């Protein structure tokens, strides 16, 4: 059986032991009922994964002694950031979970002009905490060593400017800026990806349930985004996100 994996953000390279606390400890003790002497895997969400053994479990923490680094990577060779308009209720949670499974490097939610559920004051932080927890769970479940960063942009202007992932947006060549536009009739996502087979990074811009406004389209184009179609049928925003992420991984990473 695969050893259970736990997220410890403070884990650093070369550490001889690690403490598991908080939610992760609750899970270890209350749900999985692991005991001293059992093998576990710890990851820091930034690519470092180690194998270890539980030394001691006390009220506040479980101490794990590190046996060695696990260098087998399940990360994709492509970097994909999802720029996603906020959608209704739990659908955002669903998008976070699926985007992590499908290898996204980052997720930026933005409130579109036609976004129905504008977040009330202070609600944004609660949501971010919740989405980060979902991302950790999804990363654990699918064996990823990197937890994608999640942020909340004010509007589409901020999302397409790329403040949340400046290094990618500055990279220029080999970085595809793709707008998934429901009204696009000429260029498909397939055309775009097949003309850039060596690309190793992409941003995917997805609209809200109400679709993009003409102003959004102009704004995205000004920021270098190319509008493409996902086919003749109009997909729900969450379906479009999953489809676009899958297609990009398939074309540019080969899922090998
Ligand atoms: N209400 C709109 C549809 C919005 S679909 C209408 O009826 O026209 C929500 C988002 O999913 C869109 O903004 C777009 O980003 C994406 N999307 C859905 N279907 C698509 C398609 N066939 N091609 C490209 N993008 C699509």
List keywords for this structure.
single chain, alpha/beta, five-stranded mixed beta sheet
Quick rundown:
This protein is α/β, with parallel strands linked by helices and 256 residues long. The chain is built from 8 helices and 11 strands.
What report would you give on this structure?
It is a single chain. The protein has helices at residues 22-31, 91-101, 123-142, 156-161, 166-171, 189-194, 214-222, 237-252, and strands at residues 4-7, 17-20, 39-43, 49-57, 62-69, 79-85, 106-110, 149-153, 175-180, 201-206, 226-228. The relative contact order is 0.15. Helix 2 (91-101) runs parallel beside helix 3 (123-142) and helix 2 packs parallel to helix 8 (237-252). The chain is elongated, with a radius of gyration of 20 Å. The longest helix is centred in the middle third of the chain and has 20 residues, at 123-142. With 256 residues, it is of the alpha/beta class. It is 33% helix and 24% strand. Strand 6 (79-85), helix 2 (91-101) and strand 7 form a beta-alpha-beta unit. It contains eight helices and eleven strands. The strands form two sheets. A six-stranded parallel sheet has the order 8-7-6-10-9-11, sandwiched between helices. It starts with a strand and ends with a helix. The model has no long low-confidence stretch (mean pLDDT 92). S-adenosyl-L-homocysteine is lined by residues 180-182, 206-207, 209-212, 229-231, 233-235, 237, 240.
């Amino acid at each position: 059986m695969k050893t259970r994996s736990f997220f410890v953000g403070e884990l650093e390279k070369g550490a001889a032991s690690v403490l598991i606390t908080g939610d992760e400890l609750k899970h270890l003790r209350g749900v999985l009922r692991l005991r001293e002497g059992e093998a576990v895997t710890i990851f820091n969400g930034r690519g470092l994964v180690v194998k270890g053994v539980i030394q001691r479990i006390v009220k506040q923490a479980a101490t794990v002694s590190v046996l060695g680094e696990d260098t087998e990577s399940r990360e994709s060779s492509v970097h994909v950031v999802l720029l996603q308009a906020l959608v209704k209720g739990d659908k955002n949670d669903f998008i976070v979970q699926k985007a992590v499974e499908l290898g996204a490097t980052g997720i930026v939610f933005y409130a579109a002009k036609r976004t129905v559920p504008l977040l009330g004051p202070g609600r944004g932080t609660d949501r971010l905490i919740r989405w980060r927890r979902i991302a950790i769970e999804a990363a654990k479940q699918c064996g990823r060593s990197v937890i994608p960063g999640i942020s909340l942009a004010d509007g589409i202007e901020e999302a397409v400017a790329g403040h949340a992932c400046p290094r990618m947006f500055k990279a220029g060549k080999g970085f595809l800026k793709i707008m998934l536009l429901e009204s696009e009739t000429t260029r498909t996502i397939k055309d775009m990806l097949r003309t850039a087979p060596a690309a190793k990074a992409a941003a995917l811009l997805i609209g809200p349930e109400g679709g993009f406004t003409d102003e959004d389209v102009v704004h995205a184009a000004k920021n270098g985004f190319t509008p493409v179609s996902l086919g003749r049928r109009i997909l729900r925003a969450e379906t479009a996100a999953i489809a676009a992420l899958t297609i990009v991984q398939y074309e540019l990473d080969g899922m090998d």
